[in-house]
Amino acid sequence: MASAKTSARTGRLPVLPVPHHVRWPLGYAAAALLVFLAYYYMVPSLPEQGQQFFQTWLPLSSVNEALVWVICALGLNIVVGYAGLLDLGFVAFWALGGYTAGWLMSGHFYQVNLHFLSGAQSSAVGVHVNFWFVLLIGGAFCALWGVIIGAPTLRLKSDYLALVTLGFGEIIPQVFTNGDDIGGFNLTNGARGITPVDPITIGGFTLGPFDLVYKFVVFVVIAAVVMFISLRLREGRLGRAWLAIREDELAASMMGVPLMRTKLAAYAVGAVAGGLAGVAFATHVGGVLPDRFNFSISITLLAMVVLGGMGNVWGVTLGALVLAWINSTGLPQMGNTINENLGTDINFPSYNFLLFGGILVLMMIYRREGILPEARTKLVLREPSRTEREALGADMEEAAPELDEALEAEDAELEAAANAPAADVVVADAMVADAVAATGAEGTEGTEDGLGEKAGNTI
């Protein structure tokens, strides 16, 4: 009623109140729907120049790849943003998910002929499982490896934890690179990778390599599922336990939070998102190559989480979309435009880490909490620093404001006494003297009575 009356007075249409926790999901759904309608209806009907602009600056393949980055960055946000565990080897889970798709959706294991609701031809050799089942298998497989990798790091913190996770992140891609001859068995096909993988099937419809609009819908759905899981876990008991460990691990353990189980849960849940991203990426590029899973991907994912805002799902999503677009399309196209206009020959994509590093430095100086920070992180990072005036005495005075009130009252009494007339001062002195004399007499009588009573008791 109040909003309707206010709208009537201002002459504006009434606005339906939208709960705060629903605004970002609705915005994500609206943006996804807008992109789908734009590429399905609008872009094909544009003139050639308009289509060329979209193909140059915002190709749908780059949008799909950016969504894969979003899925993986959300998984890393669970480990780093929620639980506060610095992970520099998250690319390992991306690689495990990708190779799970390569093993279960291709003819790599030609010794076996297994088909399960797949879009591959019935005469194709190898293992061919439906894409949606491979998603589940890849997530479960990566969760298992998340527990295996996370178990040795439970006693480690800070830099030591980062170094161990970095080691795992380097070991697993090297295993895939050299896994073409493990005791005479070809597990990963070495540096040649596993190509091609089966296409995505939805019911009886198979998505070809140029069905990018429908792949966009699939990746949007996967990202939405990961977002939903992240948000629900954040509000649940497990999410609060992660935040407690992030803020103070010792205090969390003293309050009854099981550190080992909670940390392993963070690694496992984050690894599930990495596995989903790996499976989606394998279908996006049509295969799995070991050189796609290098250390730079882990650093880029960490930059997405930090830039967007650690602990905030929507901030991490925004950071992943922005950095993925810059890395795949924005920086190369801006470089081409500058080279054409200025007649230079600069390889701008080779400076992507220089650009990311500069952006991170500026963010750490001017906005450490990220673009869309979590409320708790924002309060902690914007807390004013201690100054020289905030010494122990100042802290004690702030802790006992009644001391300031007593001192102010005493100063007021002294000032009133100094400003009082002389006669009043004499009368006040006399009254004080009489009060002191009376008090002394009473004290003397009390002392004598006390001594007499004590003597009687002695006799």
TrEMBL record:
The main location class comes to membrane
Q: How does it sit in the membrane?
A: Multi-pass membrane protein
Q: Which residue ranges run through the membrane? A: 21-42, 66-85, 92-111, 131-151, 212-233, 264-289, 301-326, 346-366
The answer on whether this UniProt entry bears the keyword Transmembrane helix reads yes
The name this protein goes by in its record: Branched-chain amino acid ABC transporter permease
Superkingdom of this entry's organism? Bacteria
The species this protein belongs to is Streptomyces vastus
The protein's matches in InterPro entries, at most eight in alphabetical order, are given as: ABC_transp_permease, LivM-like
Localization annotation: Cell membrane
Could you list this entry's UniProt keywords, alphabetically sorted.
Answer: Cell membrane, Membrane, Transmembrane, Transmembrane helix
- Using the UniProt annotation, give all residue ranges assigned to the region (Disordered): 440-459
Q: Does the keyword Acyltransferase apply?
A: no
